[in-house]
From TrEMBL:
GO terms for molecular function: guanine deaminase activity; zinc ion binding. One of its GO terms (cellular component) is cytosol. Keywords: Hydrolase, Metal-binding, Zinc. Catalyzes the hydrolytic deamination of guanine, producing xanthine and ammonia. This is Guanine deaminase. Its cofactor is Zn(2+). Pathway: Purine metabolism; guanine degradation; xanthine from guanine: step 1/1. Its EC number is 3.5.4.3. It catalyses: guanine + H2O + H(+) = xanthine + NH4(+).
Amino acid sequence: MTGKTILRGQVLSFVRTPFDGAPEDAARIDEAVLIDGSHIAAVGPLAELRAAVPGAVEIDHGAHVILAGFVDAHVHYPQTAMIASWGKRLIDWLNTYTFPEERKFADPAYAAEIASRYLDLTAAHGTTTMCSFCTIHPESVEAFFTQAQARGQRVVAGKTCMDRNAPEFLRDTAQSAYDQSRALLEKWHGVGRISYAITPRFSPTSTPEQLEAMGALWAEHPDCLMQTHLSEQTDEIAWVKGLFPEARDYLDTYEQHGLLGGRGLYGHAIHLEERERDRLREHGAGLIHCPTSNTFIGSGLFDMAGLMAEGQRIGLATDTGGGSSFSMLRTMAAAYEIGQLRGVPLHAAQLIWLATQGSARALRMDHLIGNIAAGMEADLVVLDLASTPAIAQRSAMAEDLWEALFPTIMMGDDRAIAEVWIGGRRV
Ligand code: GUN
Ligand code: ZN
């Protein structure tokens, strides 16, 4: 559906971050939002929007909550089919399950099938933008961007580069990683709603030469994002220190090769040293919290409260398929539980902000997506706060909207997603 549409419901938008000041006052609720083509034209009282656009189509969502679509700041779409693989920690999990699956993406037909399946699954869960790793195969990037483009979806992705400590069939070289990444970037970056992210997988699977080549490419294209992994498991950190004996810490393996910056996205970032925290904050780099992955693979407890308090830029992500879900609701629930284990419960407003604006801010796209305001792209999700009997009976008792939302955050799944809009189109 395109044209002018008024959606009625409880339209929730943030007026400031809920991490500064009382979280419950960080958002406002409006009666309606007006979609004009691919963008949001206005938010406000129903009578005002009706008067502004007589004859607009109206969809009444009653008590449902209308939010910005979820933004998943770190995923591996090629790991869709192998999600929920049992019993391994990071390095064994990569070798046992991940690399054999990623091998299949040399086949463009398989890559297209999984890209399509992944985008269907995530849309059903209310995710409208994601930042994805692909595989070393350029075909895997082509497949993902082609599928996203057909759906008019804002996505970020890049070819995952690895030239050591991976099976022969998943290795490129410093030069071929540079050449293939550059060709994909030049073809796709900025085409419609597509952005390219330079994507060295992580320091253990790149030689210093490959990291240097990725850093050079980023310096040539500073408007691109760069995504990688940082300090996920303690064994991994010890391995990095062995591979890069001259580095001051894990982050330094990126920093020394031009891979630290404000458009850098560092997945996990759990076991950080003080120098790493200082450097990440000075650059305004994006730290991406992947809570279901961090519990599923047994990585550790992200320090949300401490990192937020020191002013880090933080996004939220499923990390599918190290993460055990496609759902940002489930991901918010896991972030809440990790907060509890660290003694700091996150408020519902903070969880929803992280899954929308927080992630959009980490991706440097918060002027386009991640909130509901005039001029922003019309990526929206409509949440049913009574999607199952268990959730309905709890939210019925709630005294305010945050309390009514919280059971859907903790217990909701794709049944709570009443409707999704991507780029002004109902999907
Ligand atoms: N570190 C390097 N590669 C990966 C990956 O695919 N998933 C996770 N969770 N961590 C990684
Ligand atoms: Zn990852």
